[in-house]
């Protein structure tokens, strides 16, 4: 039976003739699968909407933000049609069962070879190629995930459909067809490649990752109908199982059967978990307490063993957890001291050595349980070394090693399900406490008290029921929603206040610089200088702030230019006529502007009288003014040279860090280290481009520090600024564990 992974398109499929008659069991499976996929797809589209909204919220430009909002609008409008088309295509797979044999694949390959000429390949756009690669990767991963259930379904469906045979099997639930059906339906979205890849990613996370439960239900229905009810899929552990001593075969047969059934139920064929198990198997040494160790070490005449697993193992861990809690944690403060380092391997060794089974046999673990213990131990080694995790949270999470081990022994989907209740809760705790530092007053922080209580409840109440994590997660989410709402309001006020302050500062600096430059170029009498610097500068300041709406800045600058022009000699008749026209309008504008800024009324009349006097004198004494002008202009050039300060070059090595600073997004957490050795964590709240200013706030939304882009590059070069990773804690830990195992392999 050939089980190569070929990719078949739903349209123009050979062998998909008229619908075949199928028994009611297949109709029931079809309805269940179509309804289940519809529900999963709704969750995927909701996640797409959340992802696009978050990207739009963190966009660095209006164009980028509009792009994400347009994609959200496009998907919201067309998602119902896409869902309907997808469900229709999946339902058609059961009426036209696709052939999955070698002949079918050969036909597809031949057709692809005929159509894939160099000319056509050159027309394939990079975006289309990128989408095809993502789709192919999704299909390959799904085939690997669900290899066992897929083989069972293929065998049973091949028996049902009359046109199928062992040489020409069928399987409507192949991930190839389901993924392609969605890709064709999603083609209705008129969105760019980045947004399209987000859609595929969420489809993979919410739909493809949960195909296993639909496959399990389909197999259950077919088994109840008596279709190949005794199918058995023997994995690679079959040989190891045969090596268990004959004397213990009767006692362990039921345990192995239960283990095989449990392994299937939790998808032993999960790609990530399988990969980790293979890597762990390569490193498994003499310190092993699994059945395979005793079987291979002692041969058939070795020690009879007693399998410790299930409820018995969980009970032993509960007792060990209670003892560890009493030894390592003060009951009133779980975060006291350093993180608790529990060597789970030593703990299990001690538990097995002190455990005396009633049958008097040697206690041993199932190999999968031993792998889970090693994996959880490595995960917490990463967590306790993770610099991104705040110190108080690190201490609290370290108390949960044994409870999490009990979780994964009972429910192995902890590793494959991103939305597993225990996994979600750990990620939420780490994410919520990222803003803490050692110097914080934890006793006064409601968030710390909430997290402390959650950890205490897990240690006291967890008896193997995963529902506890879900309940605690919902309570914590509700608490965070309230706290984040308060912090967001404070942060918004802080951000607006800083923007206003910085814009005001820039406005004042601009006004002062402009007046200094103009008055240095063409000096004016002291009385006029006082009017401009102490009076009209206020008008210019407000005009600069309102310029975005009222465009008054240019008018206020024009008044200064006109006033200086009127105070200097004009011998040409046209210029003198212009002077006569400009002065009345100028005086009116000056008075109106100064009155608008509530300038002292008595002082205003005096200033206007002085201004009129200076203008009159300037008009009468043209010759004298003309004689003074060359002397007045002498200091012009030196002053201008002093005003233009050359830009200081960046220090060597600082420029290379500027790109890292530009990569910091609003909402990202960083840690600053001070010269005295202390440190504090804060979040980037705003980037104010007008002043090249980065504003950071604490967890409560209050301003902590502000720095320029170059200052931040200096801090990073000196090792005083660290950008913290905010990805899901368990996801990062799994990635680190896999990377470590690969290096050691």
TrEMBL record:
Residue segments, region Disordered: 1-23, 97-122, 238-261
Domain of life: Bacteria
Biased composition (Polar residues): 242-254
InterPro entries for this protein: DUF1631
Coiled coil regions, renumbered to chain: none
Biased composition (Low complexity): 99-113
The protein's name in its UniProt record: DUF1631 domain-containing protein
Gene source species: Marinobacter lacisalsi
């Amino acid at each position: 039976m050939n089980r190569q992974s070929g990719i078949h398109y739903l349209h123009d499929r050979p062998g998909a003739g008229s619908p075949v008659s199928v028994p009611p069991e297949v109709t029931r499976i079809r309805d269940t699968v179509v309804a289940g996929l519809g529900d999963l797809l709704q969750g995927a589209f909701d996640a797409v909407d959340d992802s696009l909204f978050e990207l739009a919220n963190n966009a660095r430009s209006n164009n980028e933000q509009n792009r994400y909002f347009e994609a959200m609008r496009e998907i919201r409008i067309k998602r119902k049609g896409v869902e309907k088309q997808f469900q229709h295509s999946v339902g058609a797979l059961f009426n036209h069962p696709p052939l999955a044999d070698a002949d079918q694949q050969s036909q597809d390959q031949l057709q692809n070879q005929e159509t894939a000429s160099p000319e056509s390949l050159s027309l394939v756009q990079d975006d289309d190629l990128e989408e095809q690669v993502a789709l192919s990767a999704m299909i390959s991963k799904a085939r690997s995930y669900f290899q066992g259930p897929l083989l069972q379904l293929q065998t049973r469906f091949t028996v049902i459909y009359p046109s199928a045979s062992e040489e020409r099997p069928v399987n409507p639930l192949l991930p190839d067809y389901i993924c392609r059906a969605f890709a064709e339906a999603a083609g209705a979205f008129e969105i760019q490649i980045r947004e399209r890849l987000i859609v595929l990613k969420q489809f993979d996370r919410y739909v493809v990752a949960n195909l296993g439960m639909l496959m399990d239900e389909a197999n259950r229905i077919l088994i109840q109908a008596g279709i190949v009810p005794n199918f058995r899929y023997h994995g690679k552990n079959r040989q190891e199982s045969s090596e268990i001593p004959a004397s213990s075969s009767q006692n362990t047969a039921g345990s192995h059967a239960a283990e095989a059934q449990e392994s299937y139920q939790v998808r032993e064929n999960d790609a990530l978990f399988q990969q980790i198990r293979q890597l762990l198997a390569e490193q498994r040494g003499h310190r092993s307490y699994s059945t395979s160790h005793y079987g291979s070490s002692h041969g058939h005449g070795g020690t009879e063993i007693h399998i410790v697993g299930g409820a018995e193992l969980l009970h032993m861990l509960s007792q060990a957890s209670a003892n560890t809690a009493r030894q390592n944690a003060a009951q009133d403060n779980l975060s006291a001291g350093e993180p608790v380092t529990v060597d789970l391997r030593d703990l299990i060794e001690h538990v097995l050595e002190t455990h005396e089974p009633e049958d008097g046999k040697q206690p041993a673990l199932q190999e999968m349980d031993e792998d889970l213990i090693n994996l959880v131990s490595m995960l917490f080694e990463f967590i306790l070394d993770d610099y991104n995790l705040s110190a108080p949270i690190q201490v609290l999470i370290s108390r949960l090693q044994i409870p999490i081990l009990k979780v994964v022994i009972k429910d192995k989907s902890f590793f494959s399900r991103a939305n597993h209740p225990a996994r979600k809760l750990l990620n939420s705790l780490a994410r919520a406490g990222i803003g803490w530092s050692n110097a914080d007053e934890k006793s006064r922080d409601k968030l710390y008290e909430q997290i402390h209580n959650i950890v205490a409840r897990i240690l006291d109440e967890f008896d193997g029921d995963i529902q506890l994590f879900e309940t605690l997660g919902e309570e914590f989410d509700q608490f965070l929603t309230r706290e984040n709402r308060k912090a967001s309001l404070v942060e918004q006020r802080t951000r607006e206040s800083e923007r206003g302050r910085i814009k005001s500062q820039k406005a004042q600096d601009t006004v002062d610089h402009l007046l200094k430059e103009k008055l240095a170029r063409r000096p004016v009498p002291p009385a006029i200088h006082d009017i401009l610097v102490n009076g009209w500068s206020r008008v210019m300041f407000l005009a600069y702030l309102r310029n975005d709406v009222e465009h008054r800045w240019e008018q206020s600058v024009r008044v200064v230019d006109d006033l200086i022009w009127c105070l200097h000699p004009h011998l040409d008749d046209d210029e003198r006529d212009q002077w006569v026209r400009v002065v009345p309008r100028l005086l009116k504008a000056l008075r109106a502007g100064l009155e608008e800024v509530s300038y002292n009324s008595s002082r205003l009349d005096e200033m206007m009288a002085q201004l009129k006097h200076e203008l009159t004198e300037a008009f009468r004494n043209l010759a004298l003014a003309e004689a003074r002008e060359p002397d007045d202009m002498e200091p012009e050039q030196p002053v201008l040279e002093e005003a233009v300060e050359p830009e200081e070059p960046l220090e060597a090595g600082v420029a290379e860090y500027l790109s890292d600073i530009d990569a910091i997004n609003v909402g990202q957490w960083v840690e600053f280290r001070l010269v005295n050795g202390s440190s504090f964590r804060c979040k980037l709240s705003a980037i104010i481009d007008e002043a090249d200013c980065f504003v950071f706030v604490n967890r409560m939304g209050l301003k902590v520090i502000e720095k320029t882009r170059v200052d931040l590059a200096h801090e990073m070069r000196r090792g005083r600024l660290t950008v913290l990773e905010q990805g899901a804690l368990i996801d990062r830990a799994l990635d680190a564990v896999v990377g470590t195992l690969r290096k050691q392999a």
